[in-house]
Amino acid sequence: MRNTKNNRPIGVFDSGVGGLSVLIELEKILPRENFVFLADQLHVPYGEKSKSELVGLAYRIVDFFINKHDAKMVVIACNTSTCYSIDALRRKYSLPIIGTVPAVKPASEKTKSGAIAVISTPATSKSRVLKKLIEDNCWGMEVFNVGCKNLENAVEKGNIDNPRVHILLKKYLKKIKNSKIDYLVLGCTHYPFLKKSIRKYVKPPVKLLDGGFSIAKRVGFLLKTNFLKTGKKTKGKTLYLTTGNSAKFSKVAGKLLNKTIKSKTVKI
Ligand code: DGL
């Protein structure tokens, strides 16, 4: 089924630039779709917020996507927001909402050593969702669940390989240094941008796993089964928005994605 309505955009949000690590996978797999990417930088970091704050922000963002952009689907490109607000969002809205959770399940299926580690924000690390993912998938395995404060803030500033970020990484990754892990799950969408720096402390054969590709595949599947795929034959467009400072967003996003980014500040 093809109709012009399906050219409506997919809303993608995160607290900041981290969600771009999901957006790039979406753009790769679904090049004809239009996206509206919103970085809620006025409220970053999400990883230190309460459940009610996170649900309240998520409501405002989804309302914004629906009312201002007529979004056909929403992708929560943020593990923290997903862990605390996806159930409330799905209860309130009828459009498809896809979340991002730490890739514990695939890591548990692939591990040979029987030991994995997950790094995430403090809120994700102590969330019921992550604990349940571990309980349900990692029976009899050794799992290191490491909450990392301030890592996302470094990425927000575009600091992906500076001394400050190395001090933080060294501190958090020390906990798994002499372990048997063969998979390290990057449970925050800001962390894929730190892969090169993480590799200084976590060497192969340990594999780094994030959820971007699987989420993009899932979005593609849901577009198809909900008859929401765009009918366009040309390349889609992405609109970059922030609730913070657009000059700062454009600069850091441009550095992370290695291309020129133009963005606009919006109120939600
Ligand atoms: N990028 C987000 C995540 O995946 C949250 C970062 C933050 O604002 O604390 O959890």
Topology, pairings included?
Layout: E1 10-14, H1 20-29, E2 35-39, H2 51-69, E3 73-76, H3 79-92, E4 97-98, H4 104-110, E5 115-120, H5 122-125, H6 128-137, E6 142-147, H7 151-156, H8 163-173, E7 183-186, H9 195-198, E8 207-209, H10 212-225, E9 238-242, H11 246-257, E10 263-265
Parallel strand pairs: 1-2, 1-3, 2-9, 3-4, 5-6, 5-7, 7-8, 9-10
The structure holds D-glutamic acid.
Active site: 78, 188
Function: Provides the (R)-glutamate required for cell wall biosynthesis.
Binding site for substrate: 14-15, 46-47, 79-80, 189-190
- What is the number of strand segments? 10
Biggest sheet overview: 6 strands, parallel
Shape: globular
CA gyration radius, whole angstroms: 18 Å
Strand and helix order:
EHEHEHEHEHHEHHEHEHEHE
Mean pLDDT: 96
CATH class of the largest domain: Alpha Beta
Distance between the termini: 33 Å
Summarize the structure in short:
It comes from Candidatus Nomurabacteria bacterium GW2011_GWF2_43_24. The protein is α/β, with parallel strands linked by helices.
Keywords:
single chain; 268 residues; alpha/beta; Rossmann fold; 2 domains; six-stranded parallel beta sheet; four-stranded parallel beta sheet; 11 helices; binds D-glutamic acid; Glu_race
